[in-house]
């Protein structure tokens, strides 16, 4: 342990220096060897004097306290006062433990401060005060229905959907069967009456193409009906 040196600017006072020595020398804080600790502490003070550094008075006060405790430790214990014997190191031990606890708390607070400095906190929003005129809220049933529909639309948009697209195939035979069934009871039908609008788009296309083929084969005849419709006549029996 000879030659052990420390730097003054590392410590914030004599207790801080003593804690450093206790840690470096692996000393039990509840059973401090005063001879070792005092020698190291005094070597530190002497080192500071050699460097012509003004040693603060609190360091010198602690040095005298350590020497006082050390001298008490060297005195023989009076036999008749054995039960009332008080360890002269006890006061120093309590100060060191208390300082050690404060130092740990300070380190924890400093760490929390660093963590908080890395967090961006949104400033509280100031809401403008709304005028309260105690007027009754007028809401119609239609307003409620509109609001309800908006909620439903939003839910349907947010809900994931699985959509399967299937290609419908309509055969030539199916289209011919559809036309013959439509003209089974009627000889003349309007183009709009031909479909019920429940048919799929591929089926409408297939039937319309078959219809044109029937017109070409003189099985059906088609004539204009008004400006927007056509009349289809069955020519076969």
Protein architecture, described:
The protein has a 3-stranded antiparallel β-sheet. A hairpin with a 3-residue loop joins β2 (220-225) and β3. The protein is built from 8 helices and 3 strands; from the N terminus they run ααααααβααββ. The chain has helices at 14-24, 34-50, 57-74, 90-117, 141-158, 172-182, 191-194, 201-216, and strands at residues 188-190, 220-225, 229-234. The longest helix is centred in the middle third of the chain and has 28 residues, at 90-117. 52% of the residues lie in helices and 6% in strands. The protein is mostly helical and 237 residues long.
Produce a short descriptive summary.
This protein is mainly alpha-helical and 237 residues long.
Percentage of helical residues?
A: 40-55%
How far apart are the first and last residues' alpha carbons, in Å? Answer: 126 Å
CA-based gyration radius: 51 Å
Structural class by helix and strand composition: mainly alpha
Shape: rod-shaped
- What is the assembly state of the chains in this entry? single chain
Biggest beta sheet attributes? 3 strands, antiparallel
Largest beta sheet: what is the strand line-up?
Answer: 1-3-2
Average of per-residue pLDDT values: 80
Number of DSSP strands?
3
Strand content: 5-15%
């Amino acid at each position: 342990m000879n030659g052990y040196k420390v730097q003054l600017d590392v410590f914030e006072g004599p207790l801080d220096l003593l804690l450093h020595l206790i840690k470096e020398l692996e000393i039990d804080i509840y059973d401090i060897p005063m001879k070792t600790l005092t020698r190291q502490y005094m070597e530190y003070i002497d080192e500071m004097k050699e460097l012509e550094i003004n040693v603060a008075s609190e360091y010198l006060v602690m040095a005298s306290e350590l020497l006082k405790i050390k001298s008490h430790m060297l005195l023989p214990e009076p036999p008749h006062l054995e039960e009332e014997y008080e360890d002269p190191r006890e006061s120093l031990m309590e100060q060191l433990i208390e300082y050690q606890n404060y130092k740990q708390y300070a380190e924890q607070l400093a760490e929390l401060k660093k963590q908080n400095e890395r967090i961006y906190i949104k400033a509280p929003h100031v809401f403008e005060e709304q005028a309260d005129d105690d007027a009754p809220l007028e809401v119609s049933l239609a307003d409620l229905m509109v609001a309800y529909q908006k909620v439903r639309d939003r839910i349907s948009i947010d809900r994931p959907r699985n959509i399967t697209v299937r290609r419908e195939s309509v055969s030539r035979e199916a289209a011919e069967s559809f036309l013959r069934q439509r003209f089974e009871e009627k000889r003349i039908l309007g183009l709009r009456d031909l479909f019920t609008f429940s048919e799929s788009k591929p089926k409408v296309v297939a039937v319309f193409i078959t219809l044109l083929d029937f017109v070409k084969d003189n099985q059906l005849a088609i004539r204009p009906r008004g400006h927007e419709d056509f009349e289809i006549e069955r020519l076969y029996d």
